[in-house]
């Protein structure tokens, strides 16, 4: 078939679009040769006879699996709908899409406006059954390849996790030593701060009471200076989040854990939206290796702490509930006019059992005075 049949003059008068994409920011920084080859498709388009060539590279660093929005791909689809695009150029099918929904939607639009798809292997007309079949196979292979790669990587990660080998980021109180691997932070002040929190929880049995007690003692807790790496610290007033996260973290019990959170998928506007970091019950964790490293507490104490936290978490989803005989009609419905947090209910005063509404959150989190109380 001649080039005139593949690319008639009516198509060449329109614009050609080169779509450039990499899946991750790391690939954008390191896979420079692949980027160069993708940008060279501009010359390929001109050799085929297109004078007006545009490059869409808005999706550098974005996956094509369908899990995230791709503004560049959306711009390409919008341009096809106008009928002003005569050809879409890509290095291979995986650059355009790794999921069948986007791929076949793109082919359908190209067929409607008689636009061509061009890669390094040739020119394809989605209006022709044979070309459409071949393009469909390329898209299916791209999607299948992504599934295989992802499964292989996850299986390898789980295999290493079952041996306790992955070098994880560690919480405050631990550090990776050059000579003997994972161990306590050599800063004794950091160690003493962590041991004190666990000792107070052992004594008081409540994360909030630990916060109040330590705040009264003007206790300061280490926080990474850069927000993440536990190399240098700023010592700041203790917060509720620090107390509760430490008591819930099995790492402090000398336990290596893998798969303690999960992702969830929901359909929003016809597309899959994934969210990560949803905690799972520790009985369902993928890997749990006790005595993996030095612990500040033992596993039995960790389990006791979790039972106490569950009993205390009356207001949390999944917390243990019991009838309290409350008479407040607006419990859970009012918010603070100053800070916007939800008001809690307490019963006191005269007559006995009279409900009062008050803003507790800032007092609970930072042990500071409450915003308001009324009732």
TrEMBL record:
<dbReference type="GO" id="GO:0003677">
    <property type="term" value="F:DNA binding"/>
</dbReference>
<protein>
    <submittedName>
        <fullName>Recombinase family protein</fullName>
    </submittedName>
</protein>
<dbReference type="GO" id="GO:0000150">
    <property type="term" value="F:DNA strand exchange activity"/>
</dbReference>
<dbReference type="Pfam" id="PF00239">
    <property type="entry name" value="Resolvase"/>
</dbReference>
<dbReference type="Pfam" id="PF07508">
    <property type="entry name" value="Recombinase"/>
</dbReference>
<feature type="domain" description="Recombinase">
    <location>
        <begin position="171"/>
        <end position="315"/>
    </location>
</feature>
<dbReference type="InterPro" id="IPR025827">
    <property type="entry name" value="Zn_ribbon_recom_dom"/>
</dbReference>
<dbReference type="InterPro" id="IPR038109">
    <property type="entry name" value="DNA_bind_recomb_sf"/>
</dbReference>
<dbReference type="InterPro" id="IPR050639">
    <property type="entry name" value="SSR_resolvase"/>
</dbReference>
<dbReference type="InterPro" id="IPR036162">
    <property type="entry name" value="Resolvase-like_N_sf"/>
</dbReference>
<dbReference type="InterPro" id="IPR011109">
    <property type="entry name" value="DNA_bind_recombinase_dom"/>
</dbReference>
<dbReference type="InterPro" id="IPR006119">
    <property type="entry name" value="Resolv_N"/>
</dbReference>
<dbReference type="Pfam" id="PF13408">
    <property type="entry name" value="Zn_ribbon_recom"/>
</dbReference>
<feature type="domain" description="Resolvase/invertase-type recombinase catalytic">
    <location>
        <begin position="15"/>
        <end position="164"/>
    </location>
</feature>
């Amino acid at each position: 078939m001649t080039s005139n049949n593949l690319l008639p003059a009516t198509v060449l008068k329109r614009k050609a679009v080169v779509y450039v994409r990499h899946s991750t920011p790391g690939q954008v920084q390191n896979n420079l040769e692949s980027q160069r080859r993708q940008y060279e498709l501009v010359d390929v388009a001109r050799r085929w006879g297109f004078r007006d060539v545009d490059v869409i590279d808005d999706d550098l660093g974005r996956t094509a699996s369908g899990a995230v929005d791709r503004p560049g791909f959306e711009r390409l689809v919008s341009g096809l709908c106008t009928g002003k695009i005569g050809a879409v150029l890509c290095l291979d099918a995986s650059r355009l899409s790794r999921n069948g929904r986007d791929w076949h939607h793109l082919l359908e639009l190209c067929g409607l406006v008689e636009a061509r798809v061009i890669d390094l292997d040739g020119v394809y007309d989605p209006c022709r059954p044979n070309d459409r079949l071949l393009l469909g196979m390329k898209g299916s292979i791209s999607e299948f390849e992504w599934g295989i790669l992802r499964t292989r990587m996850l299986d390898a990660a789980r295999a290493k996790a079952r041996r306790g080998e992955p070098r994880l980021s560690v919480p405050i109180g631990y550090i990776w030593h050059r000579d003997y691997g994972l161990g306590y932070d050599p800063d004794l002040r950091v160690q003493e701060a962590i041991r004190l929190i666990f000792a107070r929880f052992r004594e008081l049995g409540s994360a909030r009471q630990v916060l109040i007690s330590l705040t009264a003692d003007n206790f300061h807790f280490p926080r990474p200076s850069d927000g993440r790496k536990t190399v240098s610290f700023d010592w700041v007033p203790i917060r509720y989040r620090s107390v509760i996260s430490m008591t819930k973290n099995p790492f402090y019990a000398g336990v290596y854990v893998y798969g303690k959170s999960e992702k969830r998928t929901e359909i929003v506007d016809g597309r899959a939206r994934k969210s990560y970091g949803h905690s799972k019950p520790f009985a369902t964790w993928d890997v749990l290796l006790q005595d993996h490293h030095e612990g500040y507490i033992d596993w039995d104490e960790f389990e006791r702490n979790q039972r106490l936290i569950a009993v205390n978490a009356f207001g949390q989803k999944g917390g243990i509930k019991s009838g309290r005989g409350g008479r407040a009609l607006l419990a859970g419905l009012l918010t603070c006019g100053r800070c916007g947090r939800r008001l809690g209910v307490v019963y006191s005063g005269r007559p006995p059992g009279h409900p009062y509404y008050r803003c507790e959150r800032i007092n609970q989190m930072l042990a500071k005075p409450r915003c308001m109380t009324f009732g």
